[in-house]
Amino acid sequence: MxxxxxxxxxxxxRDIPSGxxxxxxxxxxxxxxxxxxxxxxxxxxxxxxxxxxxxxxxDFGIGLLLQKKKVKKMISSYVGxxxxxxxxxxxxxxxxxxxxxxxxxxxxxxxxxxxPAFFTPAGVGTEVAEGKExxxxxxxxxxxxxxxxxxxxxxxxxxxxxxxxxxxKGTARNFNPMMAAAGKICIAEVEELVPPGELEPNQIHxxxxxxxxxxxxxxxxxxxxxxxxxxxx
Length: 233
Known about the structure:
- The chain is of the alpha/beta class.
- The chain has a domain at 18-98 and 149-216: Glutaconate Coenzyme A-transferase (3-Layer(aba) Sandwich).
- Helix content is 20%, strand content 27%.
- It has helices at 9-12, 34-41, 62-67, 83-91, 101-113, 176-182; strands at 21-24, 48-51, 71-76, 95-98, 117-120, 134-137, 140-146, 150-161, 166-167, 183-194, 213-216.
- The strands form 2 sheets. Strands 1, 2, 3, 4, 8, 9, 10 and 11 form an 8-stranded mixed β-sheet that branches. The chain has a 3-stranded antiparallel β-sheet with strand order 5-7-6.
- Helix 5 (101-113) packs across helix 6 (176-182).
- It holds the Pfam family CoA_trans.
- One of its GO terms (molecular function) is transferase activity.
- This is CoA transferase subunit A.
């Protein structure tokens, strides 16, 4: 068993260079690698390309990296909660590639599975299809999309072991497992880090073969983007 533990987030992200492509796990603000993002914010790296379902909010998540002008390009499916993102986009400071959510998920999954391209009906006849190959199958037009891979991926799991095996919880499972598989170097932060043999094998969502570094995170805020409660009558 290879022990993949590192001391903390700062050590885990130490060699991420400027210009790197980062795959960020999470859905909304759920399951985002809070510690990794905070550590990257403190470094001097810039010109990052970030692949993520969303761009966080102004003062949390990837929004922190946008505030520090560390992001050159965002590849996302939803960015509606981030005013700084909107400002940088409209001013031309930030390159943006908006992708249908299902297509984004499949492009990353394909990257992890070693599948260079696939065909999907999503985006046919829209701006998404500009410059891309289309092909008809059984009388329906499909759009060819290419895989997405990263130099590094940063994911957050509920529980993991020293070998990098990961278990995600609830909504955090949406994008984290595929991001983990599609990065050349996967950095995993976990709420609980346990010795080998303590995780039930049938419950593991991401095998340790995909993970190169793992550490136990701390001080998780777990913010809610839009908190909605039922008012009493």
